[in-house]
Amino acid sequence: xxxxxxxxxxxxxxxxxxxxxxxxxxxxxxxxxxxxxxxxxxxxxxxxxxxxxxxxxxxxxxxxxxxxxxxxxxxxxxxxxxxxxxxxxxxxxxxxxxxxxxxxxxxxxxxxxxxxxxxxxxxxxxxxxxxxxxxxxxxxxxxxxxxxxxxxxxxxxxxxxxxxxxxxxxxxxxxxxxxxxxxxxxxxxxxxxxxxx
Length: 197
Hints:
This protein has one helix and eleven strands; from the N terminus they run H-E-E-E-E-E-E-E-E-E-E-E.
């Protein structure tokens, strides 16, 4: 008499095949999860970069909208209300007088922007508009990772010029300023800010 097995289990081959299939699924899931995490980190870095760019442009806009057509006086003479230097000149690219942000919260002061040697746009703040000749501004990096920082100024003839004042008749502040920033990653951003004089 032959015995018949009623409960049949898995063979070794079936178990090994199932293990291989599960291993492949786990490997694909791990790689997919790694790609998702890498993409998330990249998006986070990009979002932080654009947040810093937006904060810089907001600060720059706020400063130039409050530009005052008032020269800065010091013990060594006076400086024009708005000074836009060419790229090759030493010091900040743009220097101007501005009114206070809010009564009691800030005061009128001299402000400047320039690109330093570490690919950072720096904000220079003097304690006031009129100051001693040896007054040293506080300097703050407001945007890093900048390859190029260009400024142009709209004159009374509606022509864009690379420095201000370019002619003796260029007094006060220009009609507008065009700001071009090229990030180290290659993105180019251009904005135009209308000024009131």
